[in-house]
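Lines hold sequence, tokenised fold; shown next:
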Amino acid sequence: MAKYSEFKNLSVLYAEDDDQLRTITEETLRLVVGSVYAVADGKEALEIYETHRIDIVILDIHMGECSGIDVAKNIRIQNDKIPIVIVSGSVETSDLLEACKLNLIEYIHKPIEFNALIKVLYLAVDRLNAQGLLMAKINDTIAYDFFSKSFVHENGESTVLTKNEIHAMELLIRNRGQIITYEAFSNTLDDDMSDGALKNLILRLRKKIGDDSSLRNHAKIGYKLI
């Protein structure tokens, strides 16, 4: 069973076109989770999903041209495991039938009550843990734990990371198999890093990883995690 304290490391995408409801629920989410991306329409929700690491998706079912069902369908094409919650002000048979096809963790009514919100967060974390999605394997002996923001070794020991190391590692994991340019690193990290500072940062990550063959440099371009 998930622990309440684990919520603080979650990243939640929340889409709702009612400004008042969105503000209230966003403020509630910020009390219990680490990151909240609150948007007003389906198109923006998909843009956020494509560019950020998202652990849980909460979608209003009716949002104009791009509904919550549309967003969920698009996400499911890419990812059949991420927990998705659909929120609706009314229960319609056609909506339920469409929602049932999307492997949701919950279908809840709005306005979202606090207890209902906490329930879906527990369900989401349990599903993420069951599917191993809160740990990203780096190589045969080490994995990155998204909750503790640390490397976990096969013997159970962990290695802590600095804030910039965390940002860099999650950028690499989120875009695994793709080259991350020096500019992209600079835009993601807290500081406007020089080439030398970035090299030192990557060097520290390599040392903490141990077998660094999965983290490759592409001269004059950037780095890639394979």
Remarks:
- Residues 135-225 form a domain with the Arc Repressor Mutant, subunit A fold (CATH 1.10.10.10).
- The chain has a mean pLDDT of 87.
- The chain has two domains: 4-130, 135-225.
- The radius of gyration is 19 Å.
